[in-house]
Amino acid sequence: MIDGGTPAQSGTIDWSRLPRRDTGQSPGGTGPTLPPFALGASAAANDNRAKEPPSLQWEAPVLVTAPPMVAPVGVPGNGARTAPGRLQSMWSCGGRRRRRLFAGAFLLVLAIVVLSRYIPCLPVVSEACRDEEVQRFNWSGLVPMRLRGRIHGLQARNSKFLLEGKEFRIFGGSMHYFRIPREYWKDRLIKMKACGLNTLTTYVPWNLHEEVRGKFDFRGNLDLRAFLRTAEEVGLWVILRPGPYICSEWDLGGLPSWLLQDPEMQLRTTYKGFTEAVDDYFDRLMREVVHLQYKNGGPIIAIQVENEYGSYAEDPDYMMYIKQALLKRKIVELLMTSDNKDGLAAGFVSGALATVNFQKMDPGILSYLDTMQDNMPKMVMEYWTGWFDSWGGPHNVFDADEMMANIEKAIKAGASINLYMFHGGTNFGFMNGALHFDEYKATITSYDYDAVLTESGDYTSKFFKLRELFMGLADMPRPLPPIILNKASYGAILMQQYISLWEVLPSLVEPLKSEHPINMENLPVNNGNGQAFGYILYETVIPGGGELHSHDHVRDRAQVFLNTLHIGYLDYVKHQLSIPDGQGYRQLRLLVENRGRVNYGRNLNNQRKGLIGDIYLNKTALRNFKIYSLDMKPSFIESLRGTTPWSAVPDSAMGPAFFRGTLQVQHMPQDTFLKLEGWSKGVVFVNGQNLGRYWKIGPQGTLYLPATWLQQGHNEIIIFEERAAGRIIQSTDLPFLGRSQYVG
Prior knowledge:
single chain, 744 residues, alpha+beta, eight-stranded parallel beta barrel, 40 strands
C-alpha cells in the first residue's frame, strides 16, 4: 500500500504466503515450525513427531498486485487530474505505454533476483543456500530414469566422486525392504527423495532369502529386484550391501542358522564350510542384481564388500575372498568397505574404497581416512541418526540439532554421507538380533531407531531439518513429500477364546525323542535345516526334588514347569533352581525361548539356541527327552486354528497359552498400534502375520500393525502368552516406545 493504502495492482511477491522455516528443536530450545502438510499428525508424546496434514500442497510464492508507482490522485487516464508538481509527460495518456514497460522491466528484474535465489530451496529457505562455504551442485541430469548413454559409472578420483565425469556427492539414506511391508516401499522411498537425498542403501538378509539350504526366496516382501526398481523409478541411486554378513541388529547378522549345524563352523572366515555356502548364495543373489548395475542401465552405483569386518577380523584372507567372489560374478561397479574408526585398517581391502561409520564428528576422523587411501573421496557410510533399543533398557533418542551439526561438519569437510537409518521399520517376527558382551541384551521388535522417519513412516523434525539442508546443496528433481497415512484407534479388543499349550501340544507337534538334549539348529526338522526361531520344549521325567542346575547351557531363557506348575526360570544370569520334593515320577518341562542371536562382535560362532548342553538335577545329568519344535511359523498358526475347540477365557488365565480375539474394521484399514497393558511376555499374530515380541519390562509398549495386514471386517488376533495374561488389548493411533534417554 502506498500513499493512502490503495490496493496493489500487479507483480510483487506476497511473502506471507510462504511456508515458515523449520527452526528446529533441541532440549530446552525453540520448537520447530513444520510445513502445512505436517500439521495435525498422530505422534508419541516423547517424540516431537510431525503432525498429520489437512493437505499436501506446498505454497509457492504467489504473485499479487503491485503497489502503484504514484498516488491514485491525479493520474491521467484514471479519471483524475494531474497532481501538482508531477511530470505530465510521464503520466499522460501518451506515456502510459512507457510506464507499463518500465514497471514490467522492474518486476522482471526483481523476480529474477528473488526467485533465482528462492526457488532451488523451496519449500523452506535453507541456510545452506546462503552458506558460501558449501558448494552447490547441479545434478538435474543425474537421475536414474533420465540418464542415457552411460559410459562412466561412479568413480573415485582426486578426492572426489565422479558420475559420468561430473562431480557428485552421495547423500544417501538407509532403508531395508525386509523391515517394511512391500505396499509401503514406494511411499518411504518417495519421502527419501523428497528429503533431498539421491541414494538408497540397503542390506540383503541371507537368512531370509535362503531359510532352507538350497531353496531361495525372492518373492513378495523379499523381492529385492522390485525394491531396487522402485528406488530407480523414484529417482534414487543405490549402494547395495549384500553381505553375506550385515549386522543390522538382525538375527546372526543375517547369516542363516543352519550354518551352525556344523560343529566346527567358523563364520566370516575362509573356512571351507562357510565359503561353499557363500558361493552358492552369491551365485543365486547376483542373478537378481547384476543387470541392475549402473553400466547395465540400472540404479546400482556401488557395492559394499562384507560389512564392518574390522571389528571381527578373524581371517586376513577373508575380505579378499569376498571381493573376488563379487568380481567373479560380474560385479563391475565401485567397491566399498564400511567400518568404524577403530576397525578401518583391519577391514580395508585393496581395490575397494574405505568408508567410515560414526555418530559424532570427532576431530581427525575423516582425515584418518586420508592416511589409509591418499587422494580419495571421503564417505561416511553410516551416519547414525539415532540408536536401537534393547529389552529392559530405555528408548534411545539422538537430538536433532546435534545430528544436524555433525552432518553439516561432515559435508563442509567435503564428505559424502549416508544416513543410517533414514527409516528403520520393524523387526517383525523373531528376526531381532542381540548383543552379548558383559551381558546378553536382545533388541526389541521396533526398529524405529529415532530415525528420520518413524517406525510407521511418519515425518519427524529431523526430516524437515535435513530437507532444508539438502535442498540448499543441490539442484535435482524432487517430489513433494507424500501425505502422512492416517492412523486408527480401533479401541479395546476382547480376547474371547483360550487354549493351553499343554492341552494343544499332543495334536499340534510330534515330539522328537533323544537321550540327550539337542539344540535348535541340530533338530532333525525343516527338511534337515534345523529350527531357526521361536520356542523349543524339552520334557523328561524326574523321580524327586533337589537342585536343578543349567551349567549355563540355556539359550536364551527357559521357563521351568513341574507337570504344569510353573516353578521359575533359568537364563544367562540365573543358573540354578530348587525343585520341590514330591512322590513318584513327575514331568520336568523346560520351555526355552530363542530371544535373538548375536549380530555383532566375536561371539557369532556360539549362537546355537535351546539347550546347548546337559542340564543337571542333584549333579546328575538328565536324560531321555521328548523335544517339541515350536517355531510358530504360519503353518504352525494354521494348524493351531484347526485343533481341539477353543474354550472361553477363564477368569485367571495363565500361560503358556494361546488367546484369540477379533479386531473389527468397518472401513478401509489404517495403520494402528497394539498396546498389551496387563500382559507379561509373548508374541502377537494378526491374520497369521507375526508382529513380533512384547514384554512388560519395556521399553517398547506398543506393536506396530500395518494397515496392509488388515482387512475390512473380521481380523483374527492370536496371542501366545508365556505367563500372566490380560483380557483385552488396546488398538491406539499412537506408538509408545518407552522412557526416552538421549544418546551421544
